[in-house]
Structure formats: structure tokens, C-alpha cells
Amino acid sequence: MSTRPHTPGQDRAHATAVDHWAELGQLSAFLAHEINNALTPAVSYLDVAEHRPPGDPLRDKALDRAALAIRRIARLSDSVLALAAPQEHNAACAPRRSADLHHALGAALLALPQHPETPALDIQHDLEPAQAALEPLWIEHVLINLLVNADRAQAGLPSRHACITGRRRGPRYQLRVEDRGPGVPPELRQTLFDTGVTAPTPAPGTATAPIPAPTNGAANQPPPEPRSAPGRGLGLALCKRLLEHAGGSIALDPHHTPGAAFVLDLPLATPQTRAA
Q1: Can you give the pLDDT at residue 105?
Q2: Closest CA to 146 of 173, 131, 165, 172
Q3: Which of 65, 32, 33 is nearest to 46 (CA)?
Q4: How many CB atoms lie within 10 A of CB 93?
Q5: pLDDT at position 270, please?
Q6: Is pLDDT at 210 greater than 50 in this prediction?
Q7: C-alpha span between 96 and 79 (Å, rounded)
Q8: Average of pLDDT values for 27-54?
Q9: How, if at all, do strands 249-252 and 172-179 pair?
């Protein structure tokens, strides 16, 4: 039985369809990864609330943080799925909104996973006021991802620190996120932003000590230890994708020591994007 040969146009259409399905598969993995990252602390917050009586301020705080994490999932889902549009549509619909970087940082800090009873990551920040030409949720997501990584990298240390600085550079804006952890091994630096690559985390057993059981008899067992989703090598790859889609970039500063420093290069907003 003979088959009719494909025309060049059919071959191109087939290759485009294959690429699009591969793209959808990668975006689905990204989305599942980020949903898991948001759900994991949400479940921890609900566990804390379950061990506290009604009216306990800690219970209310945990429920508020759980609700915030769940609402973020809905916003992030819409944002990531927008990248699944065909390439020509995607380019035409590139973000035209602008992000107030001070506001975006504040939103990221509010959404950062944090156990209500354990010391938070000490975050120092100094940003020159600016509007960046990208979706606010995208820069919020990138900052959350980098800060969560910084927190994990310093697990078991007496204190955990991160520093965020931002300065204008002509029509661009440079944002730096630094930590005091062990840094990124040299052998991973070239592929750190590839899908499936993740930096090693501290050995098990170095996390913060368990929190004590409530003394009011609300439960016989202490609340579970705060949990974070294990790294799967997708978070930094998605950060890179979001920033590049908006005309920005992210890189590891190979000269920073001790710890790790990530440098974000962002396009500044124009009058048109500010008005969007």
C-alpha cells in the first residue's frame, strides 16, 4: 500500500504541532510544580490551625496564610497557561502591564511560605523606585521562588538571611537577590536554569527544631513541622522563561561569595505600559 508523500508545508505544520504539544507538556509540568509549591505550605498552615482552638490568634494567622496561598494558585494558573498560546499569538500578547517593584516585593513577602511559630527568613531590601514592564504576578513569582530557595539553602543555620537590592541602569533595571548559604556548586552553574536541574539542599535533620505542643490541651501532639515542597528543577527554569518572555533575563553571579546571588535584568516600563 503506497502513501502519498508529505509536502514541505505539511512537514512544517507537523513539526509545529509537535513543538506545540511538547511546549504544553513542559508548561503542564511547570504549573503542577508551582501548584505543589503553593499547596505544600497551605497544608502546613491548615495543620497548624487544626491544632489550635477557635479564637487563637495563631490559628487565625495560619488560616489567613492558607487562604492567601490558595488564591495565589488561581492567579498563577491563569498566568502560566497564557504562555501556552501559539507563538505568534504569544508574541502579540506579550505583557503590556507594568509592575511597581516595591509593591511586587511587598506582595511576594506576604505570600512567602512561613510557619507561624518559627523565625522567618531575615530579608533586607533596598529598591530604587521603578516600574518594570512585565506582569506584576511574574516578578512576584520570581522573587518568591528565589527567596524560598535562599531559605532552603540555609536550613539548619542559626539564622537565615537574604538581601534584595535594585537599581536603574538606563532603560533597564537590575535586581539582585543574595543569600548566605553554601552557594551553587561550580558543576551546576552552566545548567542551573535548565529544566530538571536543582541545587543540592542541606542534609536531612538540619531543619529548625520542632515547635512545642500547645499548652491549652487543644491537641495531644505538637503541630507538624513546617513543610516545603522538594526541589524538582522546574522553579528556576520557569523563572527564566517568564522573565525572557517579558524581555528580561536572570543569571547567577559567579563571583559572589559567600552564598549565591541572582541578578535579574528587567525592562523598565514605558508610558504605554504604565497606562495599561
Answers
A1: 95
A2: 165
A3: 65
A4: 11
A5: 85
A6: no
A7: 13
A8: 76
A9: unpaired
